[in-house]
Amino acid sequence: MSRLPKRGSAGMTRRGFLIAMTAVGVSFGFPRHLMAAMDPASPDGKVLPSEGDIYEPSLWYSIDTAGKIKVNIMRSEMGQHVGTAIARILADELEASWDDIEIIHVDSDPRWGYMVTGGSWSISQSWPVYRQAGAAGRTALIEAAAKKWGIAAKDCKASNGKIISSKGELTFGELVTMGLTRQFTEEELKTLPLKPNADLKLVGQQVTSLDIANKTNGKTIFGIDAKVDGMVYANPILPPTRYGSKVVKFDDSAAKAVKGYQQTIVLDDASGSVPGWLMVIASSFTAAQKASKLVKVTWDAGETANVSEADIIAHGKQLLGDQTKGSILDTGNTDTGPVFASAKSTIAEEYITSTVLHAQMEPLNALVFKNQNGIWEVHSGCQWQSLTLPVLATALGEDEANIVIRSYMLGGGFGRRLNGDYTIPAALTSKALGGKPVKMVMMRPQDMLFDSARSASVQQLKMAFDDKKAVTAMEHHATAGWPTQVLAPGFMPKGTNGEPFDPFSIAGADHWYSVGAQKVRAVSNDLAIATFRPGWLRSVGPGWTSWAVESFMDEAAHHAGKDPLQFRLDMLIAEGRNAGTTPVAEGGAARQAAVLKKAAEMIGWGTPQAKDTALGIASTFGQERDMPTWVSCAVQVHVDKTNGIVNVQKLYIAIDAGIIVDPNGAEAQCQGAALWGLSMALYEGTELLNGQYKDSNFDTYTPLRLGQTPEVKIEFIPSKMPPSGLGEPAVTPVAPAIANAIYQAVGVRLRKIPMRPSDLKSALTKV
């Protein structure tokens, strides 16, 4: 078979070839295990067939006789171009031609291992795996070519999809045609020589992203686009509380007048994901929407029907007041009491963050049915398949082996789709209908009402100083509703006092500053957990713990009479635990100091500013200490004292994330993350009122608008260190940098986010 045109060239595509050959009686079937996989470069998302035989040096990719390489991606795509980034790691090590690369977002089959896309883990964790896989293929291809030519393998080299020697050239496809069977054990993979980082040709360079074309021309298939023949639509009716509400009765007599209405079902959910829910079923999406408005429901409301945000904050303060509560993190010397007792001076402040919704663009949706083979198919975008499958199994009363989640592109995730609770109502409805295909698409108010929001938090920080105003001790006490406690308690380690804690609700408090004795205490807010289902939101713990740490560091600098930049630099000492104990963290506090200096240089730290205008700076890391991305933010803000409006004019970010695999994707992610941080700092936040989120749409829930966007600059520190994560860290220093700039501009210190104009105006009256 002659080779087909490369991607982007004129002529018939391989999909076109498939269709044409089928028309004349020749058919190539898709492999069964790829039925639930997706190629984002294909207009309909279906995986193009391979040509001839294939060689699979590793679980992670295959090479066919045309030299096309399918790279299996177990990470979910939600705008970060993760497939392109991971595929280039493999292609670079393999010495493949980028034109021959295709990516496949795979289904939830167990062979892919533990599937989760979050925590900014994807590239950092994929880096060694895909490099080893690429090295395996390169080794096998070189060995095969050397054997064919009768020469030593050391006399051959791989380059751009070919094996080259003095004997000539053989393409990868030609070598596969000859027949390759070389396999590698896990031990062999770990010992394969990798290319020196300096010899990488695709990593860090500009390449064509494999999913952008279809995203821009509207052909990408998202979960909301999923459809199968014979499906019905189900629209949910949500109860008055997240937990504890029970349906007493319902009346659907008026709904029966809607053409296409079929019935209303009260869900019985053994997983506890959607208690008190009803599903209105119709033959069309519109009919289900109309009918649901006509169904009258009476509930027994849950116990949290009268709980509001103020109650959760007050409860949090009460919890922090009890020193026996919570878990103490291992930060070295945690015996701070004696140091504070002998301190020359101390400061203490409290910081609060409001509830934050995910509000992703694609509302929650799922299509579920039982196929002819008795397998439950779940068609939906999902960030954490390995967490969602057991919940689906419990809800359906099925074995996990009989459930598959098909990969779809996510129209925004930001952590909301880590919790797959939205697949449950569609699955239960399908089960009630005998496995019939059921599609649920939430409207925006339903999506927001059902959100797994970032919990409101309370944080209390203390610092001790000696007679020279040097820091001698620090304490950080924090409480919020813990998502990991609710959704994945197995991921909770224990503190030094034997109590478990949610690492994603306290990371960032265990900072890299050398402050002497240091105590970090994490406390779960049980009232928050009882009222709603806390969720992981982009940047998780560091998104709010860093708000407190870096605001407090600024306050401490002023207390010590030092420049806020120099005050931080003096404490970023790469010694002991702050030197970095993992390959990704090597260099520790010294690398954080470097990004801090870079951000200061970018903004022109120390230069005079106009009236009511000032610079602010903050420095953080994300996500965890064993995989830190060092990031600093410097901002220029102007405060209008007449109305309290803060205008962020410049927002500059300096980042050390190790080797930058995908420059375009990295910059885009950091821009988006920084603007998310700005949004949560000034505009984005809700509150609980009577057991429900106050805001249900974008008329009152007001994220950052285009006209409020400042000048944004992102600079990466050149590095030879292994890559860390980039999806979230740039969120974390933005809010404190703005708060610090506001203080410099008008002398007002705000300690709650979002920082509303009304809060600033009120504070100005007290100055």
Automatic annotation (TrEMBL):
Any one GO molecular-function label of the UniProt entry: oxidoreductase activity
Chain ranges of the Aldehyde oxidase/xanthine dehydrogenase a/b hammerhead domain: 217-303
Classification via Pfam families: MoCoBD_1, MoCoBD_2
Record PROSITE patterns: TAT
UniProt name for this protein: Xanthine dehydrogenase family protein molybdopterin-binding subunit
Organism, as annotated: Shewanella livingstonensis
